């Protein structure tokens, strides 16, 4: 083979490889986080704690529940049969007769079980709640189930169950599940796709005063989920199919988090732990100037704090604040009067 021919084959191979790369890049767009859906009541990411980062329904890890690598950051890890994340009762975690969505990522360590394994359950055995209402998203062997029932029969086999279920081949990979009640219709989604629906003639009211169990039923010792649950959320509306698919397609990017609640997602936030006081306060002096958030996620107070961090003496601090406020006035963020107020507070402060 001539050098020219070998070179031609080499260049042709490079071209083929390049085209394959371009083709792969075109069909595999980079994953980006999706905005959290509206009407979210609670969101438990499982990122090193059991906190609800939306609604304040914080849980506690009990009986050996811990954390492991998840789809998005960390996840809840359940090994023992009685492991559980327990969330105290709150009426906003009841489903009533309204629409609801519960969704999460999950992974089995061993999918060969035959009895029930709970993803999320709020089910009462308290006599004051008779006839023992509750709801659950769970696996019963190879059946993924969503049950909302006003009586005890709803957890065991019963012709009175208001439920939807789908038979699914289980494995040890990560999967996204979503359970929805939309009016009289109950739906199950698996990896972003509708896999089962059931329409009932009446609605069941499953309100109760029980705590919520994540990964197990409160008080049970044998319903523990055999591995990992990540990004569990509870919403008081029915997500549409496109919203559920978007969460699944976001993959490891997940739903956009906003740790400091400044309106800028963490992945776009240059100051993810912003000072979010309503007004700019310097050393106890309240300037009454709105502590505005810039598009990059930094508040006015954050930028003044940067002056505090870099100044070696009071004079340098005042110079930094003067430069900053002059820039803010030039850009129309504050007025000349507000500039003077902020500089006056800075002058009074014992900083640094």
Lay out the secondary structure.
Layout: H1 3-27, E1 40-44, E2 60-62, E3 66-69, E4 74-77, E5 84-87, E6 100-108, E7 116-123, E8 134-140, E9 143-149, E10 163-167, E11 175-182, E12 185-190, E13 193-199, E14 212-214, E15 227-235, H2 241-250, E16 279-282, E17 285-290, H3 300-310, H4 314-330, H5 336-348
Antiparallel strand pairs: 1-15, 2-5, 3-4, 4-15, 5-14, 6-11, 6-15, 7-8, 7-14, 8-9, 9-10, 11-12, 12-13, 16-17
Helix pairs in contact: 3-4, 4-5
Write a structural description.
22% of the residues lie in helices and 28% in strands. A hairpin with a 2-residue loop joins strand 16 and strand 17. It has 3 domains: 1-30; 40-253, Jelly Rolls (Sandwich), CATH 2.60.120; 266-348, no CATH class. Helix 3 packs antiparallel against helix 4 and helix 4 runs antiparallel to helix 5 (336-348). The chain has helices at residues 3-27, 241-250, 300-310, 314-330, 336-348, and strands spanning 40-44, 60-62, 66-69, 74-77, 84-87, 100-108, 116-123, 134-140, 143-149, 163-167, 175-182, 185-190, 193-199, 212-214, 227-235, 279-282, 285-290. Strands 1, 3, 4, 6, 11, 12, 13 and 15 form an 8-stranded antiparallel beta sheet that branches. The protein has a 7-stranded antiparallel beta sheet with strand order 2-5-14-7-8-9-10, with no helix packed on it. A two-stranded antiparallel ribbon has the order 16-17. The protein is elongated, with a radius of gyration of 27 Å. With 352 residues, the protein is of the alpha+beta class.
């Amino acid at each position: 083979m001539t050098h020219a021919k070998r070179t031609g084959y080499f260049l042709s191979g490079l071209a083929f490889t390049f085209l394959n790369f371009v083709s792969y890049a075109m069909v595999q767009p980079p994953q980006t986080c999706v905005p959290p859906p509206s009407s979210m009541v609670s969101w438990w990411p499982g990122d090193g704690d059991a906190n609800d980062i939306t609604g304040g329904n914080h849980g506690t890890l009990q009986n050996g529940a811990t954390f492991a690598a998840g789809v998005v950051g960390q996840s809840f890890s359940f090994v023992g049969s009685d492991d559980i994340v327990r969330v105290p009762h709150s009426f906003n975690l009841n489903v009533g007769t309204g629409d609801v969505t519960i969704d999460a990522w999950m992974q089995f360590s061993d999918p060969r079980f035959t009895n029930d394994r709970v993803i999320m359950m709020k089910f009462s055995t308290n006599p004051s709640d008779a006839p023992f209402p509750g709801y659950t998203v769970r696996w019963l062997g190879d059946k993924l189930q969503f049950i909302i029932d006003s009586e005890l029969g709803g957890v065991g086999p019963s012709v009175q169950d208001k439920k939807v279920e789908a038979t699914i081949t289980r494995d040890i990979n990560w999967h996204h599940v979503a359970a929805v009640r939309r009016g009289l219709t109950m739906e199950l989604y698996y990896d972003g796709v509708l896999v089962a629906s059931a329409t009932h003639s009446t609605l069941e009211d499953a309100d109760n005063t029980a705590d919520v169990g994540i990964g197990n039923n409160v008080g049970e010792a044998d319903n523990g989920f055999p591995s990992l649950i990540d990004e569990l959320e509870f919403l008081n509306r029915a997500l549409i199919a496109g919203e559920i698919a978007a969460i699944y397609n976001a993959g490891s990017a997940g739903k956009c988090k906003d740790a400091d609640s400044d309106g800028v997602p963490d992945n776009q936030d240059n100051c993810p732990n912003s000072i979010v006081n309503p007004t700019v306060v310097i050393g106890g002096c309240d300037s009454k100037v709105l502590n505005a958030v810039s598009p990059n996620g930094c508040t006015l107070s954050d930028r003044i704090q940067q002056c505090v961090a870099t100044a070696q003496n009071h004079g340098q601090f005042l110079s930094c604040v003067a430069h900053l406020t002059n820039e803010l006035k030039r850009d129309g963020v504050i007025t000349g009067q507000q500039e003077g107020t902020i500089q006056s507070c800075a002058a009074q402060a014992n900083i640094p």
